[in-house]
Design brief:
alpha+beta; two-stranded antiparallel ribbon; about 260 residues
């Protein structure tokens, strides 16, 4: 979801306060004060049927945002709890409505994709309604539990782990770095591959990755020519395996073939 520190928008208009009062379905008490004023005692409860964090928004956030926005992942802040999301509600809505988040580059209307990372129109409408209603929490006892992510590999214990022989050090400043690395696969002959999972050494430093096969060995001839690991030159003969689109970006799921296929 959104990058940056974002925050609450500050003061609200008197009109928005009045609208909130009109939307209230249950108030614990009223207190009349001299001069005709009226003070509300207790918490305002949203109208039945109103969009709340506990009722609808938590499910949307946990599904589409939390995979990247939790501790140890690429996103710079968490989006897990009501407080996490409430203080960035307007920012979240803006990047979702611009289709910037969650990251998904495929245009709609050209078929369905496995693991598609796109909010539906109904989910976007719920998010907008919730933000415009001042982000009501609802009943905290009804909030779905925060998802748990397994430690280590998402697709289970792998049969083969291929790693870079030497770490690449990225400086703290400067433009984005696009770098290619030739990594040998220690296998003889062909193998059937059922699943592929990419795990960055530093999720906060790696933005995306493409996995290609160089059957002509040109990449290996370039590896080692510089003091640093890798090389900048693109290799036209290095291609993705036939029928596969092996990429990774924050929040991506492992590429797993259907049962019985590889």
């Amino acid at each position: 979801m959104p990058r940056g520190d974002g925050g609450e928008t500050g003061t609200r208009s008197m009109n928005s306060r009045v609208n909130i009062l009109k939307a209230a379905a249950a108030v614990r008490g009223w207190l009349a004060v001299p001069g005709g004023g009226l003070v509300v005692l207790g918490m305002l409860q949203p109208c039945p049927g109103a969009v709340t964090f506990s009722g609808e928004i938590a499910k949307v956030v946990h599904r589409h945002c939390a995979p990247c926005h939790h501790e140890g992942q690429a996103a710079p802040f968490n989006l897990l709890t009501y407080e996490d999301v409430r203080k960035r509600a307007r920012q979240v809505l803006e990047v979702v409505e611009r289709d910037q988040m969650p990251p998904w580059l495929a245009e709609p209307g050209y078929g369905d994709f496995a693991n598609e990372r796109r909010l539906s129109d109904a989910e976007k409408a719920q998010l907008r309604e919730w933000v415009e209603a001042d982000a009501p929490e609802g009943d905290p006892n009804e909030t779905p539990p925060i998802p748990k992510w397994p430690a280590g590999w998402l697709s289970g214990t792998p049969d083969l782990v291929v790693t870079m022989p030497q770490a690449y050090e990225l400086g703290p400043e400067g433009p984005d770095v696009y770098r290619n690395f030739a990594i040998r696969i220690p296998l003889e002959g062909d193998r059937l591959v059922h699943a592929v999972e990419f795990a960055p050494g530093n999720p906060r430093a790696v933005h995306h990755a493409f996995v290609r096969i160089d059957e002509e060995g040109k990449a290996r001839s370039l590896e080692g020519r510089e003091a640093r690991p890798g090389f900048d030159t693109m290799i036209p003969t290095a291609r993705m395996p036939g029928g596969q689109f092996l990429t990774w970006n924050p929040g991506s799921q492992p590429v797993v073939s259907p049962p019985g296929l590889a």
